[in-house]
Amino acid sequence: MPNIAVQLYTVREVMERDFIGTLRKVAEVGYEAVEFYTYGGLSPLALRKVVDDLGIKPLSSHISLTRLEEELEVVIQEAQAIGLDYLVCPWLPTERRQTVQDYADLAATLEKIGDRCNTEGIRFAYHNHDFELAKQDGQVGLDRLLNPSQKSGVQAELDLYWIHYAGEDPTHYIERYANRCDLLHVKDASKTDGSFAEVGSGVLDWQAIFAAAEASGAKWYIVEQDVCKGDPIESIRDSLEFLRRSPD
Q: What domain of life is recorded for the organism (predicted)?
C-alpha cells in the first residue's frame, strides 16, 4: 500500500483564513504528509519548522511552469530548505499546447527542468488534467510530453479522476507509466453527475487501481478534491478513512 498524503489545494478556502491552523487540522485528521500549492507567505525555513513541529512530512509542491522556467534555482533552494522530495508542474498554459510542435517544445522544457532537479536530489513530475488525453495525429498529449517508451527524468503524477473524466481507464495509464508514477492523485467521480467526490464514494474501480498501483511501484496516494460540496476537512477525512481500510 502506498503512503497517503493530501494536496492542500483541497482545503484552500480554510487555508486562506488560517494557513498554520489548517495544517494543524490536517495533521489531526491523520495525514502524515502534504503536497503544497502555496507556502502561505512563510519563508522555507519557517515552513519547515511548522511541519516539523506538527509531525507532517513535506512531500511535494506544485510549482507553476513560469516559476520553473524563470526561477528554477530559487525554486530548488526553497524545496531543499523545506525538505521536499518532489516538485510538480501542475498545468500548461492553453496558448502553449495547441500543436504537436508545442508539445514537443514543452517536453524538452520539462526534461531540462527534470534533469536539473534530479541533479539536486529532487524528483520532478508533471500532473495531468484531461486535455493531455486528447489525441493529435493519433497520439495523446501526455505521451508526447512524457514518452513512456523512453528513459526520462520526468515522472507522471497521474490524476486518476481526470483520466477517467477523459474517458480513459486509470489503470491503463498507471501500468503504462510503471516505475515513473511515484505519485498518484486520487479522487472519485460522483455516481450521480460525475463531479468530484471523496475517494471510494463514486464510480472509479479502486480495487483495480490499488492492484495496478502496487504492481507499478507507486509510492504515494495524494488525496485531492478540486471542489468539495461540504466541509473540505470532512472530505479529506472521508477519503483518508477509505484508503486506510480498503487494502484490508
A: Bacteria
* DSSP states of 70-115: HSHHHHHHHHHHHT-SEEEE----GGGSSSHHHHHHHHHHHHHHHH
28 CB neighbour count, 10 Å cutoff: 11
Give the phi and the psi of residue 36 in degrees, each rounded to 5: -85, 155
Of 237, 239, 126, 106, the residue nearest 183 (C-alpha): 126
Grid cell, residue 77, equals 533552494
Per DSSP, 61 falls in state E
Q: Which of 173, 189, 76 is nearest to 128 (CA)?
A: 173
Q: What is the identity of the amino acid at 41?
A: G
Residue 193's contacts (CB-CB under 8 Å, 6 or more residues apart) are: none
Residue at 48: amino acid letter? R
Q: Residue 76 — φ and ψ, nearest 5°?
A: -65, -45
pLDDT band at 1 (very low <50, low <70, confident <90, very high): confident
What CATH number belongs to 3-245? 3.20.20.150
Q: Model confidence over 188-216: pLDDT tens digits?
A: 999 999 999 999 999 999 999 999 999 99
